[in-house]
Amino acid sequence: MSQNLHSLFQNAQSGGLSRQSVDLLVQNLDGQTGLGCVGAQVDDLNTDDVTLLAVLLDESGSMAGVRDDVIDAFNQMMRALHDSKAKDSILVSVWKFEHTPKLLYGYTPIDAVKDLTRNDYTPNGGTALYDATMDCFTGIVAYGQDLRNNGIRTRCIVVVVSDGADNTSGHTAAAVRTVAQDLLKQEFYTLAFVGFGNPADFQQIAASMGFPSVMTTGTSAKEIRQALNLVSGSIIKASQAKVQPTGNNFFTP
Q: Which are the contacts of 125, defined by CB distance < 8 A and separation ≥ 6?
């Protein structure tokens, strides 16, 4: 498995990813990030055109007050994807993060995605935003490369949902930005950030990480639900587009 993963990153470098980014991703490999590189078997896919969606959910202690609202809004977002015409082409992976990132599941067909529950999402601790993003990047680059090696076209969408800045990561914003900028150059990646709170704060946080698409909202149940509803619509639109949205166009209704 390890050797196979390394070969996928070498393929990604041959496909245009810089040596610096590949080194950062390979150095980030461990047992958990290795699992994040895994998804549905190629032979089980009923399409040769796939959208990989990676969602990173902030599970830090400050999210405790909106726990149920986030769970409900996330599940509504997944149901919207399931009910769309694009459902057969969407594979979802979900990470959550507090003082460390945790993989909830690797790339899974939307039909097989189970509802998020209170047992799955238990806000507590700090905010390892950068570490979680690097873990997510590691997985989506490797699994996406595996699909492309097997002749499957891929679009890759990363959506971060958070209410604050990083305070516990080993990785830096600069390292995340290095990889993010490389991914965006490949033109089949979309990197989007949903922030609950002060717009100026999240514009700065997202920019420091190299995420060009930013949406900010309040913390009421209605606002959170509306935000993730817009995300699901944007994902569906992007999954059907021949060209990935650039800049801040991802969140355009």
A: 59, 60, 61, 98, 99, 168
